[in-house]
């Protein structure tokens, strides 16, 4: 998916642009989907590709939405990332090339992986019958969220 930098800036919010196009990272415990427990799909905020399912989301305690595996393995590309004097594996949307986050080998079974993904890189599509907006039907536990008031709108 080829777009100019100006087209990406026009399409994305400043936070989405920083993460998806400049490989930024949102501060921990501030992302919109960190505490989301609703059923549904997480899609790329830039191109809409289905990336992760709520079925593989888990509470990692790291401050970012975490998944054990992508919804479709071919939806993401993994690349070595040796920036910031660390060895990590970057997770990229295969459709648009947007930076999503990183994958680590410290997750739970069955894969042992933790896909640590920025909320700003995602859009959530609730399953049919779910609200997905933090309402009572969504399963989002806002009472347990100490950072709720600091989340971007």
Q: Would you kindly provide a written description of the structure presented here, covering whatever features stand out?
A:
The protein is mainly β. Helices cover 9% and strands 26% of the residues. It contains two helices and nine strands. The strands form two sheets. The chain has a six-stranded antiparallel beta sheet, with no helix packed on it. A three-stranded antiparallel beta sheet has the order 2-1-9, with no helix packed on it. A hairpin with a 6-residue loop joins strand 5 (76-81) and strand 6. The longest helix is centred in the N-terminal third of the chain and has 7 residues, at 5-11. The radius of gyration is 15 Å and the shape is globular. It starts with a helix and ends in a 27-residue tail after the last strand. Mean pLDDT is 87; it is low at 134-153.
Number of helices: 2
Coarse structural class: mainly beta
Q: What is Rg? A: 15 Å
The counted number of beta strands is 9
Q: Biggest β-sheet: count, sense, barrel?
A: 6 strands, antiparallel
Describe the strand arrangement of the main beta sheet, using strand numbers.
3-4-8-7-6-5
Contiguous low-pLDDT stretches (5 residues minimum) are 134-153
Give helix and strand order, one letter per element, not per position.
HHEEEEEEEEE
The N- and C-terminal alpha carbons lie at a distance of: 28 Å
Average pLDDT for all residues: 87
Which range best describes the helical content: under 10%, 10-25%, 25-40%, 40-55%, 55-70% or over 70%? under 10%
The amount of beta strand, in percent, is: 25-35%
Q: What does the overall shape look like? A: globular
């Amino acid at each position: 998916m080829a777009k100019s930098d100006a087209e990406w800036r026009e399409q994305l919010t400043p936070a989405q642009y920083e993460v998806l196009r400049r490989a930024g990272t949102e501060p921990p415990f501030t992302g919109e989907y960190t505490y989301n427990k609703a059923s549904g799909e997480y899609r790329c905020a830039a191109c809409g590709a289905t990336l992760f399912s709520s079925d593989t989301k888990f509470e990692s305690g790291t401050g970012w939405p975490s998944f054990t595996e992508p919804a479709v393995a071919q939806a993401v590309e993994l690349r070595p990332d040796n920036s910031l004097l660390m060895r990590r594996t970057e997770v990229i949307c295969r459709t648009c090339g947007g930076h999503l986050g990183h994958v680590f080998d410290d997750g739970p079974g069955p894969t042992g992986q933790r896909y640590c993904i920025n909320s700003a890189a995602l859009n959530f599509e609730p399953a049919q019958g779910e609200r997905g907006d933090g309402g009572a039907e969504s399963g989002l536990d806002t009472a347990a969220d100490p950072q709720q008031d600091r989340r971007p709108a």
